[in-house]
Design a protein that fits this description.
Blueprint lengths: L1 H18 L7 H17 L1 E4 L3 E7 L2 E6 L3 E4 L6 E7 L3 E4 L3 E4 L5 E11 L4 H11 L3 H20 L17 H20 L2 E12 L4 H10 L16
Antiparallel strand pairs: 1-4, 2-3, 2-5, 6-8, 7-8, 8-9
Helix pairs in contact: 4-5
Length: about 240
């Protein structure tokens, strides 16, 4: 009888001991949970910096464009991913182009273009589609646009309205405005890029027509040096 009672107490002790063991998370497990939560939170947040747009893509398709600086929420990858688009002002030089004026004279002209991507979602998406978010390719396209626009714009101006000893006869502002309008229309429509400023960096008489040009301008009472540099401007 005492043996049975002893066994019963042992069984009871074992049963009671099993129910009383509490779960105590180890410090290592607690740290792992905290780190996991931090990683998940960082995967769901994106920082929009000043002068930048963030495009959120879901399975490759753009679904949202954010331009207001600060933190914004998104779903973690691979569901949502982000593309950063630089909205800061950039400048590109056209290089020197040989173009003809309205009065049939050849000039060498170089322009600079100050451009950027507007901070509206439509044009940001358009830039991503057309340029794959590569400003270098956009600059190449702008140089090409500008070369064609210089040829067309120059054909609307006489040389005397671009190079003259009389400041009142010079129409460089009109030339630059016409050039900007022509480039801006193409760039915005095709690539989602807006032109902020266009200016002439250099304007030189072509060597093969220099002598004839000097004689013509002397006959009209205007002097001209061998090399005329237009007003310089910087973006």
């Amino acid at each position: 009888m005492s043996t049975h009672h002893h066994h019963h107490r042992e069984h009871g002790h074992e049963h009671e001991h099993g129910n009383a063991t509490p779960f105590r998370p180890t410090p290592r497990l607690a740290i792992a949970v905290v780190v996991g939560l931090a990683v998940l939170m960082s995967a769901c947040l994106v920082l929009v910096s000043p002068g930048q747009a963030i495009v959120v893509t879901r399975f490759g398709n753009p679904i949202r464009v954010m331009t207001t600086p600060g933190l914004a929420a998104k779903l973690p990858a691979p569901i949502d991913n982000t593309v950063a688009v630089d909205l800061r002002l950039r400048t590109t030089s056209s290089g020197l182009h040989d173009v003809g004026t309205r009065d049939g004279l050849r000039i060498l002209v170089q322009a600079y273009i100050a451009w950027q991507i507007p901070d509206d979602p439509e044009h940001i998406r358009q830039f991503l589609r057309a340029m794959r978010n590569q400003p270098e390719i956009a600059a190449e396209q702008l140089r090409s646009f500008t070369g064609s626009a210089l040829e067309i714009t120059a054909s609307s101006f006489d040389l005397a309205s671009l190079v003259n000893t009389e400041p009142g006869q010079i129409k460089l502002d009109q030339f630059e405005n016409a050039l900007r309008k022509r480039i801006d229309e193409q760039a915005l429509k095709v690539y989602g890029i807006t032109i902020r400023q266009v200016g002439l960096e250099r304007l030189t008489l072509a060597s093969d027509t220099l002598s004839a040009t000097i004689e013509r301008m002397k006959g009209a009472g205007n002097g001209c040096g061998g090399k005329v540099r237009a007003r310089a401007a910087h973006g």
